[in-house]
Amino acid sequence: MSLEWFELIGKPRFVVAPMVDASELAWRLLCRRHGAELCYTPMFHSNVFTKDPKYRKDSFITCEEDRPLIVQFCGNNPEVLATAAKMVQDSCDAIDINLGCPQSIAKRGKYGSFLQDDWKLLQDIVKTMSQAVSVPITCKVRIFDDVEKSVQYALMLQEAGCKLLTVHGRTREQKGPLTGIASWEHIKAVREAVSIPVIANGNIQCLEDVYRCLEYTKVDAIMSAEGILTNPALFEGINPVSWDMALEYLELVEKYPCPTSYIRGHLFKIFHKIFTFQDNSDIRQLLAVGQILDDFKQVCLKIKEKYVQYHEGKINFGSYESITRNGFNLILPPWICQPYVRISPEEHTKKMDTISKCQVIESKRIFEDPDGNVISRKKMKKLRKIMRRPEKEERQQNGRSGEICINNTCPNPLGGKCEYQFCKKCCKNKCYEEDLDCKGHRILVHTRREMAKKYSKELTR
Predict the structure, then answer these.
(1) Catalytic residue flag (residue 92)
(2) Which positions fall inside the DUS-like FMN-binding domain (predicted)?
(3) Comparing C-alpha atoms, which of 394, 430, 401, 447 is closest to residue 422?
(4) Do 168 and 267 sit in the same domain of this protein?
(5) Longest dimension (CA), the chain
(6) With CB atoms counted within 10 Å of each terminal CB, which end of the chain scores lower, N or C?
């Protein structure tokens, strides 16, 4: 059955990974338009999915064009996972168990990669789910350091009833800045050992990587996560213009709505190279605070307006003057969709060591203002902040000017709108003693006293 069902869905080779808050229906359809042949839903928590109808309705959205589709669940209770699987089996082609999430939330909930040491439980989960539904049960896993243990792990899952295995060639410790390079050697060893279809995940930044991985590991398909987030046309083998991809995605969102946080996240990744330029901070800010679809369209149009003349060759953009949009060229101008390249774990460690050393040295420094006066480190940081954003030099938070209360014995900052040039505490005392109001601080001592007198007279009549 393992090979038969995979053939029935067309033996897909190009796969979009399950990504929390990122592989929603609109994004899946965009990727399908540009070469993806199989998509996963985001990871759903089985316990919440079975108990909360609203969570089910909001999270699991699909349509006729969204096939073949694999729905992914996480959890550690075989019966609950089986119940969740039954709820979606008629709307998908397979159901996947997330055994790869390395995040701390997965550790607290005991799911994802933190189940990989409990083989007995995993066998029970796979068997229970396989018996409960009519579609295949698949697993997405991470490797162990040891190649042989990774192979035995895969064989155990196959024996339990897993019909397809996605192998992420990193250990659960390889995450964030310590992600590093995925091991295709481990994936190759698993492929050679099992008889079920295998999907490889890791180190995929362009179509050339896809074919290199297929050739080396001999797997059945390639999955992309981070690579396809920055270039949804990765499997098409092109590096398209970023605003074209973004606007096409927004058209799909208009038809298949999703939370604004998803949209914002996708656009930040598509435009990640453009936002490295400081003169785009205003557009970045618009994207950061946008709440409606039109805000996000404006971001795309502003970027297009700013860079389209460079793209069309009307204005020279320095070393990016000559560009190639097709093929596997990764040296591209910032407005072209391209991979996000992480620094290596070694570089990250070296960077953090350098920062630590600088902090030790800096703690012993004597800081001076532009006039040569010795100031505190805190004051120096404030001055540097003002230098980075000179347009905000005069504008302080809450309308404060930075001046001090005119009461000689008070160190508090002056209220920006106080009629008497006091801080709020001193102003309140003054109003109480002298029967005054201060509209700036919204202190209405005089007004309330007059109202009390008026009310008292009415009562005595």
Answers:
(1) no
(2) 16-260
(3) 430
(4) no
(5) 101
(6) C
